[in-house]
């Protein structure tokens, strides 16, 4: 099995969903919250504490960075190059796990 090249994985679901939301471009906290809810059809909901606590740790790890806000007081966050690498590595890890489940005939029908 190919080894992940990032030192950030495996990622928590919250971190993964935040990185995925930011892969479309910079967002403020509420925008991240909405993007996660929409992309998961409300299966994954995150409150402000989860969002901003995760973002603080992600900033410290170099996965996201705060961007200058344009005319507003909201803090806007963007994916860094390291964040993109971590998202890519975690996506590949999850795909491998999904392949293993399918190979054992354990995937739900239609998956």
Description of the structure:
The structure is a single chain. The chain has 111 residues and is mainly alpha-helical. It has a 3-stranded antiparallel beta sheet. Helix 1 packs across helix 2 (29-39). The protein is globular. Helix content is 51%, strand content 9%. The chain has 4 helices and 3 strands; from the N terminus they run αβααββα. The model is unreliable at 1-5 (pLDDT under 50).
Low-confidence stretches: 1-5
The count of DSSP E runs of length 2 or more, i.e. the number of strands, is 3
Largest sheet: 3 strands, antiparallel
| Mean of pLDDT | 88
- The outline comes out as globular
Discrete helix count: 4
Series of H and E elements: HEHHEEH
Give the end-to-end Cα distance, rounded to a whole number of Å: 23 Å
Strand order of the largest sheet: 1-3-2
Query: What helical percentage do the residues reach?
Result: 40-55%
Radius of gyration: 15 Å
Beta-strand residue fraction: 5-15%
SS-based class: mainly alpha
Task: Record the SSE blueprint.
Blueprint: H1 13-22, E1 27-28, H2 29-39, H3 48-60, E2 64-67, E3 76-79, H4 81-103
Antiparallel strand pairs: 1-3, 2-3
List keywords for this structure.
disordered N terminus; three-stranded antiparallel beta sheet; 9% strand; 51% helix; mainly alpha; 4 helices; 111 residues
């Amino acid at each position: 099995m190919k080894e992940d090249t990032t030192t950030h994985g495996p990622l928590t679901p919250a971190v993964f969903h935040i990185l995925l939301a930011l892969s479309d471009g910079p967002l403020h906290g509420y925008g991240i919250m909405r993007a996660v809810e929409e992309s998961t059809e409300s299966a994954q909901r995150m409150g402000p504490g989860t969002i901003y606590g995760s973002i603080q740790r992600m900033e410290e790890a170099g996965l996201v960075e705060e961007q200058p806000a344009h005319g507003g007081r909201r803090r806007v966050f963007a994916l860094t190059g390291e964040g993109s690498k971590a998202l890519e590595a975690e996506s590949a890890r999850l795909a491998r796990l999904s392949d293993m489940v399918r190979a054992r005939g354990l995937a739900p029908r239609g998956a």
